[in-house]
Amino acid sequence: MSRLSRYWPLSPAIELPSILLASIICLIMAGVSFPVAAQSSESLTINQDSCLKCHKRNGAMFGLHANTALAIQCQSCHEQSGKHPRKGSSIRRFSSGSMTSVAEQTGTCLGCHDHETLAMSDWTHNVHADKVNCASCHQLHVEYDPIVGITAKDRSQLCRGCHLVK
Amino acid sequence: MSAFHFDGLVWHWPIAIYLFLAGLSAGAVFFGILLKHFKLGKKAYQSRFIQAAALIAPVTVCAGLGILVIDLTKPFDFWKILVFYNSTSVMSMGVLVLMVYQLMLFAWIGAIFSAPVVQWCEGREGRWPLLTRALIKLQQWEDVITGVLLILSLSLGAYTGFLLSALIGFPLLNNPVLPVLFLVSGLTSGAAATLLVGVLLKGNPNGTEVRFIHGIEIPMILIEMAILFTFFAGLILSGGQSQVAAFNALGEGFWGWIFWGGVVGLGLTLPLAFNLWMKVSADRKFAYVAVTASFSLLGVLLLRNFILYTGQMTGT
Amino acid sequence: MDISKRQFLTGCGTLIAGFSIYSVAKELAESEAGVSVDQTQTIKYAMVHDENLCIGCNACEQACRQVNHVPDGVSRVVINRTGPFGEYPDQSYRFSRKSCQHCEDAPCVKVCPTGAAYIDQDTGIVGVNSDKCVGCQYCIAACPYQVRFINPETKTADKCDFCKETQLKQGKEPACVEACPTHALVFGNIRDPKSELVKTLKSKPTYRAKTDLGTRPKLFHVSTIDGEIVL
Asked: Which GO terms describe its molecular function (chain B) (predicted)?
């Protein structure tokens, strides 16, 4: 049994605001391993995606993973929209509060990001593995994932956000 | 892991040079005293080799202490070591020994060279009467001074080893044989330096002094070899980290070469062979004496560095 | 004259031998007496690091750096990480705390030539008197736990002092203990049976590093359950 699973029951005690902060920062860790365009698809230009008709207005949906060089679409990670934005859609969401299971979330990221490469960039990837969603620490829809240049102190505080025992 | 930079390394080569110089000074004094007592007597001051010892001993001990002070992170605070003492600290006790040793060393030099100086002063119608009186006083006390200095020189030689053997975290250093090894090799280096400077000062390379010192040197090299063997055999038989430390030091690599080639080859075997050769051949020449002494000195210097660095390579 | 010299030398030798035996014996007697004094001392601080609770976040090191003004490049406390153990995705690491063990029989205190390294009589904490330290680095070489370093600003030996000069003076726990998010660090008085420290020590199996050297350290570790079994 892994170390983390022993403490997992503690996690409901986590405060939501700290998770949000964590998720903002968390989306960047994977950025170190930048998997570059494997596909050379013609029509995968994110700018022409129908999703952006709404999401462009709602907030910044460009940034890291919107890079055209990656040649991925929104659907590559979030799956087909289905009923979205109506209730009961099966769309894949990346956050701690998401209906999407952690394993599915991390599985999506690991589709491109190799876990060994991630382990080399930071040891914490190994222990969180498929047990914590990547968005807890990383952000993908911003220009730079804030966790990449995080100070040692902020990093410790980030750990504290989830691991704090009252 | 490079030979001169590795994790856990605290003391660098300046300490090895300090240990070398302190041991050398002690050795020079030791042989100076023996020469005067057994061979030369009252006319000792005329001997080039006694002059050499009286020159080497103070110069090396002062140079060694200078290096030690410069190596402190706060060199200008060195006086605190002289003011505060700690009876459980080998270094503190060593400083005490060093201070008294230096005092006695200068007193001894004053005593053995008192005759010509007093003669010279009196020849100039009582010039510097104070100096004359002090030297005569030293001359009267020469036996006491010599006795104390002999004990102090042996203490100083052993202290260089105790300084390192007090480090309990390093099995190669924390070894009861180390002080004996450093004492004997320190005496060897003192003898070698006395011979080298003696012949450089145009001392007779075939004189009684050289024969006397060489006579002691042969058994001393054999003893040193036996001590080195005991040192490492003891470590290997202790097992655990002691064994690891011994194999790390003696095995392949930079320090292994230094040990087998430098310490054992150049520093012990060659001088032993030369000494034995000189014993059977009719007379000693300048080159023989100088080269033998130089190899001995080099060997001891390498031994100090070898022990200091390899000692810190393996912790408990 | 020769006879008098020989007699003198013999006398000197006997005197020195006698004196050294006397001083060693005296020291032994004192250290034995010291053990009995120890029992009556009311405060003796110690610490437990629970390797199972530690998550390797380094909050302890950062809190220490801030509170004790430890310059960059050196540290009073380090969490050493070994691993990973196991196969992905079920991997774990082992974290062990490296900091001053506050030995009862401290090698650094024994070797310090000026007495700059000392054991505080009231608390049992091993401290450094910066004013007395000349920077000979004998203590750094003597410490079997290799926790001492030269502070690049003061040029003197430095190490963990359980926040004796900072947090403890304000009646608080050491900075690392306060900062630890998982309560992996427990600090307290080993002489107080009601302290959390003593309760922890009595409820969990602990080990201390290199006790065979006779240092009697006061930093206890709860050994990690994860990790490889090494022979």
From this structure: nitrite reductase (cytochrome, ammonia-forming) activity
